[in-house]
Amino acid sequence: MKALPRRIAHLDMDAFYASVDLLRYPELRGQPLVIGGSNAQQPVVLVDGSRCFSRLRDYVGRGVITTATYEARALGVASAMGIMKVARLAPEAILLPVDFAAYRHYSRLFKAAVARIVPAIEDRGIDEIYLDLSALAEDSRSLAQRIKEAVRQATGLSCSIAVAANKLLAKIGSDLDKPDGLTLLAADDLAQRIWPLPVRKINGIGPKASARLAELGIHAIRQLAHADTALLQRHFGRGYGVWLSEAAHGIDDRPLLTSAEPKSISRETTFERDLHVRDDRETLSGVLIALCRHVAEDLRRKSYRGRTIGVKLRFADFQTVTRDLTLAAATADAHDILRAARECLRRVPLERKLRLLGVRVSTLATRADEDDPSEPRQGELDLTKR
Ligand code: TTP
Ligand code: MG
Ligand code: MG
């Protein structure tokens, strides 16, 4: 039986950081706005309650912007541009500092809203996700429309979505009709809509590869699709050469990575006042025991064990140090973790006061990964310094 074609969507928020900031400063709507300043660009509230914003023409200094509204992009501004260059292109544009806490908050909100409609989601970072729509009955257009509305309801923000046969095409597609786009790509759209695009629109062809392709006279995806695979392999190696050719033909079988496997599990705490290792010995010891117990509980709840135990300390002057060690066998036991954490702490000079203490367990394995159930639960401490 032939497998049914997949329906994969890519969703990407429009001018994400700038759009989140516009929720707070709606009076800036319609103006060119650039995000990337420091605290000096924080708006000032005047006596009459109105706000005074920094303009780029007044900016002197280094740094790059994170993003810009579409009004600023119309003036030639783009992500990752130096602020001084942006100031020359758009002197009247407004500059705001980044506010990562706000972006993370809205990122969680839009992902939760989509998850209520589509359960199979691959998280691709702060403002984008892949969705597998294959198991749903509803047609792609009304589904995509419903997802866009849910995102707008939950956040007040717009996004662009494409639905295609795979991740590669969906990712290219979501960028085709920004902002507020809804793009459906069918198999026979490849030549018409994908092939005219420059090769760097393919996620996985970066600046280096596209420069080398340009040296071979290959600029558009159509040219890449018609290029001899053997030639591509000679210039880019066997694997990448084949991949380039397949990508240009819109072939991509990668599954969605729906449940992100954690690389580590950790707990940390910042003290209400800075603590001294000698004078506050008992408090610190209690905190360390509690952190190890919490990490052990997290590990057990998620059915993980870990072999690498680490500590993190931040001193009153904000200097941060970490130490870790690797055990002979993975553990989820609070006593094992505590023993190893204390061993790590012995390797840190502790003259200054502490403002933060953390415990991390990494090199994780799930129960299913453990092939030998008879292995000793509590391995010897292997004090190999890393
Ligand atoms: P993007 O999705 O690449 O861009 P965008 O959401 O601002 O605009 P678009 O409508 O074209 O999708 O990136 C998401 C956020 O990531 C962006 O708002 C700011 C941040 N970012 C950077 O900090 N530096 C960068 O170079 C890029 C590209 C993005
Ligand atoms: Mg975006
Ligand atoms: Mg993005």
List the helices and strands and how they pair.
Blueprint (H helix, E strand, L loop, with lengths): L7 E6 L2 H9 L8 E5 L6 E2 L5 E2 L1 E2 L11 E2 L1 H4 L9 H7 L4 E4 L2 H16 L5 E3 L4 E5 L7 H16 L3 E6 L2 H8 L7 E3 L5 H5 L12 H9 L5 H6 L2 H8 L1 H11 L15 E12 L5 H21 L2 E12 L4 E12 L2 H12 L8 E13 L20
Parallel strand pairs: 2-7, 10-11
Antiparallel strand pairs: 1-9, 1-10, 2-6, 3-4, 5-7, 8-9, 12-15, 13-14, 13-15
Helix pairs in contact: 1-4, 4-5, 10-11, 12-13
The protein binds thymidine-5'-triphosphate and magnesium ion (2 copies).
GO molecular function: damaged DNA binding; DNA-directed DNA polymerase activity; magnesium ion binding
Cofactor: Mg(2+)
Main location: cytoplasm
Folded structure, characterized:
Its main location: cytoplasm. Pfam families: IMS, IMS_C, IMS_HHH. It is found in: Cytoplasm. Belongs to the DNA polymerase type-Y family. It comes from Candidatus Accumulibacter aalborgensis. The structure is a single chain. The chain has 386 residues and is of the alpha+beta class. It has four domains: 96 residues, Alpha-Beta Plaits (2-Layer Sandwich), CATH 3.30.70; 85 residues, MutS, DNA mismatch repair protein, domain I, CATH 3.40.1170; 47 residues, Orthogonal Bundle (DNA polymerase, domain 1); 106 residues, Dna Ligase, domain 1. Helix content is 34%, strand content 23%. The protein is built from 13 helices and 15 strands. The strands form four sheets. Strands 8-9-1-10-11 form a five-stranded mixed sheet. Helix 4 packs across helix 5, helix 10 packs across helix 11 and helix 12 packs across helix 13. It is globular and about 70 Å long. The chain starts with 7 loop residues before the first strand and ends in a 20-residue tail after the last strand. The C terminus is likely disordered. Bound molecules: thymidine-5'-triphosphate and magnesium ion (MG) (2 copies). Thymidine-5'-triphosphate binds next to strand 1 and helix 1.
